[in-house]
Design goal:
Blueprint (H helix, E strand, L loop, with lengths): L28 H25 L5 H22 L4 H33 L4 E2 L2 E2 H26 L4 H39 L2 H32 L6 H7 L2 H21 L2 H4 L10 H4 L20 E7 L22 E8 L7 E4 L8 E6 L2 E6 H10 L6 E4 L1 H4 L5 H9 L1 H7 L3 E6 L3 H22 L11 H8 L8 H9 L9 H7 L4 E5 L2 E4 H13 L8 H18 L6 H7 L10 H4 L7 H7 L9 H16 L76 E10 L15 H21 L2 H4 L10 H9 L8 H14 L4 H4 L5 H26 L10 H12 L3 E6 L4 E5 L7 E5 L12 E5 L3 H13 L4 E5 L31 H8 L2 E3 L2 E7 L4 E6 L5 E4 L2 E4 L3 E3 L12 E3 L3 H14 L3 E5 L3 H13 L2 E5 L11 H13 L3 E3 L4 E5 L8 E4 L5 E2 L2 E4 L3 E3 L2 H5 L9 E2 L11 E3 L4 E5 L4 E4 L3 H15 L13 E5 L2 E5 L4 H6 L9
Parallel strand pairs: 4-6, 5-8, 5-9, 9-10, 16-17, 16-22, 17-18, 22-34, 24-31, 25-26, 25-31, 26-27, 33-35
Antiparallel strand pairs: 1-2, 3-4, 3-8, 6-7, 10-11, 12-13, 12-15, 13-14, 19-20, 20-21, 23-32, 28-29, 29-30, 35-36, 37-38
Helix pairs in contact: 1-2, 1-8, 2-3, 3-4, 3-5, 3-6, 4-5, 5-6, 6-8, 15-17, 15-19, 18-20, 19-20, 28-31, 32-38
Subcellular location: Membrane
Membrane topology: Multi-pass membrane protein
Pfam families: HET, Pyr_redox_2, RTA1
């Protein structure tokens, strides 16, 4: 080792160069004392915080802080005794290893964040607790390696010390490697947090994430320093520099670790995930350990239809730590209860529970009558909150009191639902666990009520943003602002999942009294609604998602109607509550039946029946409504579905409303206005006409009487809806809504050149600007009438808020910049001026702000402005497109009809007919033409090999539909014996030859290619002999059957041992023929592995079949006088046979696609995830395309019926702009092979080897 400078002298006058001196430099005592004090302070704070916030897992960071403190405490006497191993060694080891505790704490912290903030509590498929444990174990492993190396470093022997340094360095490198992996996990959590967490959770987690990133960075700095210090031997220049200068230890080791500890003091995890939240414990799941020998609770049938069950919660035993002033403090005790049957006629005293079932995968266990019963975790939390400490509580909760597996009981209990909630003493509404925002929101309710009453009593009708700050604080508190965080917290209550359940409408409407409960907070429902209404009246809701507020107002409307015994119409209720959700689509109807007058139910002939399929229920309601009402109002329900909803109901006619469509617009009459105002907006064009329902014979088509009036020439984009989840109300969010409205108004105005033609005459003689603003608000003038509404529009559009003049026609980014720079200040000034004159001379009339809000509400996400070829302005649904036609039908309140889309499909088997029927399901008016080259359509080609031996009785059993049945049932035109021989993508025309006649041309808007695959014709002499046939289509099948019957065939040779070959051999063997199977490869079914094939080979030979593998067919010889027909194979004896079947595989039919200039891949036509080819208006599906293989990770052909049918449906969805994607497949196949069933999924081992994909072979 190189000697340090001679001038360095250690304390106690021991020179640095002395062999007994353990220090390599002259250490600084004040620095050691300073850091000992600093680490002691942060250690004390961490101990206090861990105790205060009840976060036991913080022991890890406390250990790190204490080890750092102790190391510097020992360092001081070691400096004064530089030759003492008893002081130097403990200091050195503690100093080197203390950061590992801090590192371990970071691992534990992320685990708890995943547990708290991600719905599934998993990251990369690992449960939060398991992920944290894995990384802690890895940290312990690096700890052990480092401590082992550190002990060797303390040796006096230079060689041993060098070995120890290498081991310690390896431990450091391993620790840094684990940190790099861990950072990727943190990054993944960060991304998922942005997508899945609530705004409140994001805000909390962001602080911890920043702290975590900084802590890991500081630990990495320290590790890199140590790696540089010890990477080389003691003689290296770098090691000498770092080893002999104390300042580097303080700069890159002690200081980073101190700041890492301080960071965790400043943003302590306990402030955000305190107490039990910091534990990997789900109380609702671990509250009860069930004995495996215990039988689960068994329901007994109810005595009669008027009976129900009640849940008797056993009291929670009083504990010393219980707060005796509250009933809700029994969180750690398991829930036990008794279930008793009661008759509602006896007027039992109980409370009914209203709650959200929550995540069905999170289950908990309670004890009912001594037996365990599983319930949802959210229900468990509710029961835990409502049980008393000293006396039993009688509750009704549907998940427990109804046997969910007994359909008959579900039907009878749902019929009683109104009576159950009406008879309860109160309805307890469980919103979920408490948060900081929910506390603020619940606390704000009484203050909001008090302040709003003060404002109203003072005769002050100004909006919140129009009231000067001093007056506003007098009403709502010293710290109040219209965009105060408490306001956002109050509105965030309505974002709880409970407010979206459709069942809550009846539960709240019929209740005597209802209480909202969130954790330990509660508020009366009526007070909450009043507070919500007041907040709307004074304008607190300017930047809040209006749909959330509207849901509460609509619920209260039903509550008031029920209180005043007003009859309610089912269709009206369905439209009103269309945006509510239900797990079972049938509940969108059944949940509202309790609010409907009995005569209305008799009119519609509806009753609760869970054995009825959803689409049958929806169809039955539509037919009954059309027949009873004699109008088309029910057709106004929108059919736009989300991606998760679109495949739930098959073949639902377009005239049947799909009540699951929750995020869509109601008809124009019902969009955006209170029901009491709807009469003033009546649509009179068809008012006096009547409609008599007229259906096709099969009931699928509804015939309408009316006229097409106009064609849409231009459509403006709809106004984007406001954010659905927001707990903060801000000036920025309010102004941003103004910006969006301004942008949309500018674009809509451009449709009619409003800047230039504002004073030109509209068709009815009004000015264009008057026609524009009346269309904007759908003709609803508000409380002030026409003149007031007109004045408000001009105040908005031509004053300081002149949208037309101030909003430039520029790219969006420039527009946003100019808006921020210029329009926002103008908007603020206008609000101030409007506040100064807001009530002046306008009592009883709405303000300009209300005009803006109404326009925003009417247009948000549902409607856009359009122009027609005749010059009309119109509000049209968001899905309307240029070229659509507007129709007026007898006794309808809305008008809209699509211009029929012309769809041509080439190929009429599985995929093609699946696409055709799905397209008809999505659009009744579309023209759908299917061209099939062969004589049959809609048949099961997978069943063709089974048609020989009796599994399929006859050929007709394979034919599921005919051209006539497709026309009668689906109004689809099917053309058989019609081959499409050419495609002109530019002109959108296909050329067709029917029955060998002259070519005809057919136009299309969208084209679907579903031509399938064609047999591979092997290079075998004689494959065209009359006794040789391929087996692919029904005509092939008919040819083979006729030949066997005509020639009394006794033997057959099947060339090819794939699925079709094996299935055909099995079927022909059942027919009584002697069968030979000839396979070119080493075994049949090349998709399978050899161990499975050995079993199949044994079965084939056991059945008496002649099996040849590794056999190459050279030629097929015709029969002669001297010998029958023979199959000549290389290196083998000829095989005598009467008939030969060739099943040597298939290839995609791509000739037509190639002629059309479409992109062709290695195995088929290339398509994107939407199944579009390189020509956007041409789709391709089925055996002719190559799609992603989910294991091989590259496109390949998958010739299977299931994927082809699925692709047909997806292609049809995308034609109608549903944006459904095809993700790929794994290729699952199965076939009958004599007494065996052979199946495969994915790739075989040899295929995986060819693709160089790592795999395991388990037998």
């Amino acid at each position: 080792m190189k000697d340090p400078p001679k001038t360095h002298v250690a304390y106690d006058f021991v020179p640095i160069t002395d062999k007994d001196n353990l220090w390599s430099f002259c250490p600084n005592v004040p620095a050691a004392i300073l850091f000992a004090v600093l680490f002691a302070i942060t250690s004390s704070i961490h101990i206090f915080q861990a105790r205060h916030y009840r976060t036991p897992f913080c022991w890890a960071i406390i250990m790190g802080a204490l080890w750092e403190t102790i190391s510097f405490v020992i360092r001081v006497p070691s400096i004064y005794n530089p030759t003492s191993l008893g002081l130097y060694n403990p200091w050195f080891l503690l100093f080197l290893l203390a950061p590992l505790w801090i590192n371990a704490f970071d691992y534990m912290l992320l685990g708890r964040m995943v547990f708290q903030y991600l719905p599934d509590r998993k990251l990369y498929g690992l449960r939060a607790e398991r992920m944290a444990m894995c990384f802690v174990i890895l940290d312990v492993a690096s700890f052990i390696i480092q401590i082992g190396g550190g002990l060797l470093v303390l040796s006096k022997n230079d060689q041993t010390k060098q070995t120890g340094l290498h081991i310690y360095t390896a431990g450091l490198a391993l620790q840094q490697f684990f940190i790099i992996i861990f950072v990727s996990m943190v990054s993944s959590f960060h991304r998922r947090l942005g997508r899945e967490a609530s705004p409140e959770q994001k805000a909390k987690a962001k602080k911890l994430l920043v702290t975590l990133y900084l802590s890991l960075t500081l630990i990495s700095i320290r590790i890199i320093y140590r790696l540089l210090e010890f990477a080389a031997d003691f003689t290296s220049t770098l090691t000498q520099q770092l080893w002999y200068h104390e300042v580097w230890q303080y700069c890159f080791d002690a200081t980073p670790m101190f700041f890492a500890l301080i960071l965790m003091n400043v943003v302590h995890p306990g402030t955000l995930i305190p107490g039990d939240k910091s534990k990997f414990i789900k109380p609702v799941e671990t509250a009860l350990i069930v004995n495996c020998d215990m039988a689960y609770y068994q329901y007994q049938p109810l005595a009669n239809a008027g009976m129900t069950r009640l849940l008797k919660l056993i009291p929670c035993p009083t504990r010393l730590e219980c707060n005796l002033s509250t009933n809700f403090n029994c969180e750690s005790r398991p829930i036990t209860c008794n279930i008793q049957e009661v008759s509602l006629a006896d007027n039992p005293v109980y409370e009914a529970l209203s709650y959200n079932w929550g995540d069905a995968s999170l289950r908990s266990t309670i004890v009912c009558d001594g037996a365990p019963l599983q319930i949802s975790s959210n229900l468990y939390l509710a029961l835990n909150r409502f049980r008393h400490q000293r006396q039993p509580v009688l509750l009704w909760a549907d998940a427990i009191c109804i046997n969910q597996r007994d359909i008959s009981e579900c039907n009878s209990q749902v019929r009683l639902m109104r009576q159950i909630y009406q008879s309860a003493q109160s309805v307890q509404i469980w919103l979920g666990e408490e948060t900081e925002d929910s506390k603020l929101g619940f606390e704000f309710v009484p203050q909001l009520l008090h302040g709003a009453r003060l404002q109203i009593n003072a005769g002050d009708s100004r909006k919140a943003v129009e009231i000067p700050p001093l007056e506003f604080r007098r009403y709502y508190g010293d710290k109040s602002r219209p965009w105060d965080h408490r306001v956002g917290a109050f509105f965030a209550i309505s974002a709880r999942p409970w407010f979206r359940r459709v069942w809550i409408i009846q539960e709240v409407s019929v209740s005597k009294r209802a209480d909202l409960v969130c954790g330990s907070r509660r508020v009366d429902w009526d007070d909450f609604v009043q507070a919500m209404k007041f907040s709307i009246k004074v304008g607190f809701n300017l930047s809040v998602d209006s749909s959330r507020v509207n849901r509460i107002v609509k619920m209260d409307l039903s509550r008031q109607e029920n209180a005043h015994n007003r009859s309610q119409n089912l269709e009206q209720l369905l439209f009103r509550y269309q945006d509510f959700l239900s797990t079972d689509p049938r509940d969108k109807i059944y949940s509202l039946l309790g609010l409907v007058d009995k005569s209305d139910l008799e009119r519609l002939n509806l009753d609760v029946d869970y054995e009825l399929h959803t689409h049958d229920l929806y169809r039955r309601l539509a037919i009954a409504s059309l027949a009873a009402n004699r109008n088309l109002d029910i057709l106004g329900a929108c059919r736009v579905l989300s991606d998760t909803e679109q495949d739930l109901i098959d073949f639902l006619p377009s005239w049947v409303p799909d009540w699951r469509a929750s995020e869509t617009a109601a008809p124009l009459l019902l969009q955006g206005f209170p029901e009491e105002q709807q009469q003033s907006i009546s649509f009179a064009a068809t008012k006096n006409s009547t409609y008599i329902p007229n259906f096709s014979e099969n009931g699928n088509l509804l015939c309408l009487q009316g006229h097409f009036l106009a064609q849409i020439t231009e459509v403006g984009e709809p106004l984007p809806p406001p954010p659905t989840e927001s707990t903060k109300v801000s000036v920025t969010s309010i102004l941003y809504r103004g910006y969006l409205l301004g942008r949309v108004m500018r674009k809509w105005g451009n449709l009619i050149s409003l800047k230039r033609c504002r004073n030109h005459k509209y068709i009815n003689g009004e000015t264009m600007v008057d026609a524009f603003w009346q269309t904007l608000i759908a003709g609803h003038y508000g409380s002030g009438g026409f003149e007031a509404a007109k004045a408000n529009y001009h105040h908005v559009s031509s004053g300081l808020l002149n949208f037309d003049n101030y909003i430039p026609s520029s790219p969006e980014f420039l527009y946003l910049f100019l808006f921020t720079l210029f329009f926002l200040p103008v908007f603020i000034i206008s609000l101030i001026l409007q506040g100064l004159r807001g009530c002046e001379g306008r009592k009883g009339k709405e303000s300009s702000t209300e005009f803006i809000l109404r326009a925003v509400h009417v247009t948000s996400g549902s409607w856009g402005m359009a122009t027609t070829a005749q010059g009309y302005l119109a509000l049209v649904p968001a899905g309307a497109r240029k070229g659509d036609e507007i129709g007026l039908f007898a006794n309808s309140s809305t008008m809209s009809s699509k211009l029929p889309l012309n769809i041509v499909i080439v190929g009429g088997v599985g995929g093609g007919m699946s696409a055709a029927t799905r397209a008809r399901c999505l659009d009744e008016t579309a023209s759908i033409n299917v061209f099939e080259k062969g004589p049959y359509v809609g048949y099961s080609n997978s069943g063709i090999p089974y048609a020989f031996g009796g599994v399929v009785k006859n050929n007709a059993a394979l034919i599921l539909q005919t051209p006539n049945s497709f026309k009668a049932n689906f109004n689809i035109d099917v053309h058989i014996n019609s081959e499409v021989v050419g495609i002109d993508p530019e002109e959108k025309i296909v050329e067709v030859i029917t029955d060998g006649g002259a070519p005809t041309h057919h136009p299309y808007d969208k084209l679907i290619l579903a031509q399938g695959a064609e047999p591979v014709k092997p290079p075998i002499e004689g494959y065209d002999l009359p006794n040789v046939s391929f087996l692919r289509t029904i005509p092939d099948l008919e040819k083979i059957k006729k030949y066997i019957a005509a020639h009394n065939c006794q033997s057959v040779a099947v060339i090819g041992g794939g699925f079709i070959g094996i299935e055909a051999a099995d079927s022909l063997h059942e027919l009584g023929l002697q069968v030979s199977i000839i396979e070119y490869t080493p075994h049949d079914l090349p998709l399978l592995d050899s161990d499975i094939i050995e079993i199949l080979h044994a079965e084939i030979r056991k059945q008496g079949l002649n099996l040849l593998v590794n056999a190459r067919v050279q030629r097929i010889e015709p029969a002669t006088i001297s010998h029958p027909s023979r199959v000549i194979v290389a290196h083998g004896s000829p095989i005598a046979t009467d008939i030969v079947l060739i099943a040597t595989g298939i290839r995609a039919r791509t000739k037509l696609a190639q002629q059309a200039g479409l992109t062709i891949g290695k195995t088929g036509v290339t398509v994107n995830e939407y199944l579009q080819t390189s020509e956007p208006n041409i789709y391709a599906i089925g055996d002719m395309v190559e799609t992603p293989h989910l294991i091989a990770n590259h496109p390949m052909q998958t010739a299977l019926a299931g994927p082809a049918t699925r692709q047909g449906r997806i292609a049809a969805d995308n034609i109608f702009n549903r944006s459904t994607t095809y993700r790929g497949n794994v290729g699952t196949s199965a076939c009958k092979a004599f007494s065996l069933t052979v199946a495969s999924t994915g790739l075989s081992c040899h295929a995986l080897q060819d693709l160089k994909i790592p795999h395991q072979w388990i037998t």
